[in-house]
What does this fold into?
Amino acid sequence: MMCILERHTIATFSSKGKVIKPLEIVQNLKRIAKHLQFGKQEDVHEFFCCIVEALHLSCPINHHKPEEHVEKTSVVHQIFTGQLRSTVECTQCSSTSDRFENCLDISLHINNSPDLLAAFLDFTKAETLDEYTCQRCSCKVKATKRMSLHLPNVLALSIRRYDLFGNKINRDCPYPQHLDVRPFMLQQEDADPVVYRLYSVLVHSGKCSTEGHYYCYNKICDGRWFRMDDDLVTPVDTRVVIEKQAYILFYIRCPEMKAIPVCSQINDGNGKWHQKRWQRRPLTPAINRHH
It folds into this structure.
């Protein structure tokens, strides 16, 4: 899969403006995931996870310990894979328990969030567990659970656009061009901002999860945005991109940036644009929240 994508990338940069047909990718869908079929409606978020996993598995391995070698040295793993830490603290004895889980993307609910920043805060805010079995207390007690993150170089944020019945959630969720993720990371006290820059927005056009069409907006190296819809590629203004109802957002880490640029704007929902900055505030526990 890595070689297929490499050849596709080379063909793209040598096309001189001509349309590129990803024939080799289409012909090798089974290498990405066995259930994929040409012409069948598929979810682009699932496709993203499958193709990253296929790239990961196609990296060179040590045949004696393949899983260990790939996990530690895969360039795909280093670029895309982050880590979630779930910390549960007993309210009776204050003992803590941590659980770590790798992730390719962060899935955010938007039903009760006015924008992406609020949805991210909701994802990491504290929860109250009513019947947690504490190992030290040896009984069921109340506990507090919090999520924190170790984020990769490329951060993929998937917006939950479908309900349990597959119906589309057509709700605006404004998102910034630059994102400071320091408040969500494992170590955040008295530290510099960790800035990510938006470079790709994937949009779904349709009424439900079983029909419709996907297209994307990509930012090229000179800072211009383009809408890429099959064989139609057109330049667009930045504000056109920011106003879309995104399905997946791709941010890339910018270690050279020590603060959110003033030019990074977010729509407040009333047609006005302003700089959105994080405000540190107490994380109020959510009672009996499903997790």
